[in-house]
Amino acid sequence: MATASDSSASDPAPAAAAPAPEGDAALPPGAGGPEIAFFDVETSVPQRAGQGYALLEFGAILVCPRRLVEVASYATLVRPADPVSAVSAASVRCNGITRDAVSGAPPFRDVADAVYDLLNGRVWAGHNIVRFDSARIREAFAEIGRPPPEPKGLIDTLPLLTQRFGRRAGDMKMASLANYFGLGKQRHRSLDDVRMNLEVLKYCATVLFLEASLPEVLTVENLVERAITRSRANGAASPEVPKPEANSSPDSSKRQRTVCPAEGALPEGGNQGTSDPSTSRESVELVSHIEEMKLDSTTQMDVSSSSYSAFLEPDDISTEYIKISVAPLHQFGRRSSIQHKDSPLQLCSAGLKVQFGVSTKFLDNAGRPKLNIVVDIPENLSKVLEFCDDLARRSSQESGSTSEWRPLVKKYGYVNRPTVRLNIPTIVRGDSAIYSTDICQKEPSGNIQKLVFSNVDATELDSLFVRGSQVDAYFSLEIYDYHQNAGIRLVAKRLVVHSK
User: Disordered: where is this region (predicted)?
Assistant: First the structure.
């Protein structure tokens, strides 16, 4: 795409003679087909006020929307009415299309039928096509006195990716996106740019799919660091991971749970080894070991109260020491975390009243419920969380994120009592799932026992967290930004329910 603002984005490409139409046939399939027409135009660069754009090249690829594969392609140089005045030195610097190249090309009138059949009645797609390419096509048809093709729909990947992907690639121009994903320089030639547009779109979609499917992995700020730190500290040994216990009653549909002392050992189980993530930094290997790292990060912690000594009470927090730490996260962009005195901020608070029990309203991409409870919080905890929320929100905006920020603390009831949502993450391996939160029960005597569940059961869990019951919560604060929603998620590491 050639505009004045893009003129320095690429070195000039070699001059080319007018090519024959590309693709499976001399002409593209008939108009109005089901394919998506990704297209791009190259134009002259106006040198004075009032001078318009001259169309120099048109290129398009028809893409099957179901499989995103190329069905046909077409490209042609276009001779403007006056090549000498239209093709300036600035224009050549922008796209490498010289006067000699377009002097032997057909005028737009001769290729208008092919362009019309490609575009009319199809979904149009391209980068910045709404403001630039579509307007140039309409102007070209108007100049020869013909009605322009009309789209069945429009997909402009510039605003689409800016909205969905955020400004991770800076100004989100095609050259910036290609550089971000390591796809090389943008040539500013129509067919090359269209193919690059498709590749960028696939890369962005893959990242967004991973973030939507595994948000607790790709947005939990210290997961990989914890896994790598433990693997280095423990050598090559793989952690012992408990297997879910089988139901003791085969004909019983209700899942069962057993109780073991909080200071006792975890239930016996097979050694489910996990690859050492420190052996490779490759993103593909990172994704392949996601489940292992999730298990590693949640089962290494001992359930004794001493294991939670790093969790701070609200009155132990000095807001002047709270800061947002930003670091790159492999190829997936930036990683933000909330720190207190240069350590990840983790909080604990006792006697929180359950306002709403376990909800199954929200589902993940696999159709499993996202488990969480809503609790009332005291004023001192509310002040700390609101401070963190405001700090993280400003950091997100300064980074260029366009996502809608979701407030962490919400007021409830006629007295405006502050409430928060505590998330209870689960780990899925094959057909089974376990809670990654330590769920315990505190007897009236003060004795604390850990509850061991054979499987995830939202109904059974809801019977513990009934409205009005009290719970001691140990949780981390994790910043997320995906699907155009951003905020702080409170992830419960340990929940101690008070028995009545």
Answer: 1-29, 233-284
Partnered with residue 452 across adjacent β-strands are: 258
Give the number of other CB atoms < 10 A from CB of residue 327. Answer: 10
Backbone angles phi, psi at 213, to 5 degrees: -80, -35
Residue holding tokens 């040539």? 187
Residue with tokens 């026992």: 449
CA distance 108 to 5: 25
How far CA 447 is from CA of 305, 440, 444, 496, in Å, comes to 12, 10, 7, 11
Question: What pLDDT was estimated at residue 31?
Answer: 63
Phi/psi of residue 171, each to 5°?
A: -80, -5
Full-model pTM: 0.44
Looking at 320-435, which runs of residues are DSSP E strands? 322-328, 334-340, 343-344, 346-356, 372-376, 404-406, 410-412, 417-423, 426-429, 432-435
Q: Report the Cα–Cα distance between both ends of the chain, in Å, rounded.
A: 69
**CB atoms inside a 10 Å sphere around CB 388:** 23
Containing 482, the helix (H) or strand (E) segment is: strand 470-482
Evaluate whether 455 touches 255 at the Cβ level (below 8 Å): yes
Minimal CA–CA distance to 398: which of 340, 481, 339?
481
Sheet architecture: strand order including 153-156: 70-77, 55-63, 36-43, 123-126, 153-156
Of residues 2 and 100, the one with the higher pLDDT is 100
Render pLDDT for 129-168 as a digit per residue (tens, 0 to 9): 999 999 999 999 999 999 999 999 999 999 888 888 877 8
Instruction: Give catalytic residues, as residue numbers.
Output: 188
For the stretch 59-97, pLDDT in tens is 999 999 888 888 899 999 999 998 888 888 888 888 889
Picking from 438, 457, 459, the residue whose alpha carbon sits closest to that of residue 449 is 438
Task: Report how far residue 78's alpha carbon sits from residue 54's, in angstroms, rounded to the nearest whole number.
Answer: 9
Q: Is 399 left (phi over 0), alpha (psi -120 to 50) or beta?
A: alpha
Q: Where does residue 232 rank: exposed (0-12), middle (13-18), buried (19+ CB within 10 A)? A: exposed
255 three-state secondary structure: coil
Measured in whole angstroms, how far is the alpha carbon of residue 403 from the centre of its chain? 11
